[in-house]
Design goal:
Mean pLDDT: 81
CATH superfamily of the largest domain: Cytochrome c-like domain
CATH architecture of the largest domain: Orthogonal Bundle
CATH topology of the largest domain: Cytochrome Bc1 Complex, Chain D, domain 2
Number of strands: 0
Number of domains: 2
Helix content: 55-70%
Radius of gyration: 26 Å
Number of helices: 6
Largest sheet: none
Shape: globular
Strand content: under 5%
Oligomer: single chain
Order of helices and strands: HHHHHH
Length: 124
């Protein structure tokens, strides 16, 4: 009987410890959970992913040299539609032999993602 009580006590104690760890681990995970990104942060992430290899812009280490630097975008493109057209399909908006891929036409970016990129570019 003593052996059964010892096993029962050990099982209960183990369950309490494991349960306590699960609760504290869950709380720690909730605390570490990242807050949702703002639209500008999403736009920056997309810009880094899609544009940084060819274009240089502030806040990155990559020295993209294929395309022009991304600077003063709001002044250079006061109409967002023009910049949208360039990102969507530069072969139509700029010239047919440009090296820039048609991100929208090829389905690499959707309209919302292009908008996020443009909003971020307007901060540069």
């Amino acid at each position: 009987m003593k052996h059964i009580k010892t096993k029962l006590f050990t099982s209960v104690a183990s369950a309490l410890v494991i349960g306590g760890l699960a609760i504290s681990t869950g709380a720690a995970a909730a605390e570490k959970q990242e807050k949702p990104k703002t639209p500008l942060e999403k736009g920056r992430d997309l810009t880094i992913t899609m544009c940084q290899a060819c274009h240089h812009f502030e806040g990155t280490d990559q020295a993209g040299t294929l395309g022009p630097p991304i600077v003063a975008m709001k002044a250079r493109f006061p109409e967002k539609k023009r910049l949208y057209d360039i990102i969507y399909d530069p072969h139509v908006a700029i010239k047919s032999d440009t090296m820039m891929p048609p991100f929208g036409r090829n389905g690499l970016l959707d309209d919302k993602e292009i908008g996020l990129i443009i909003d971020y570019l307007y901060t540069l």
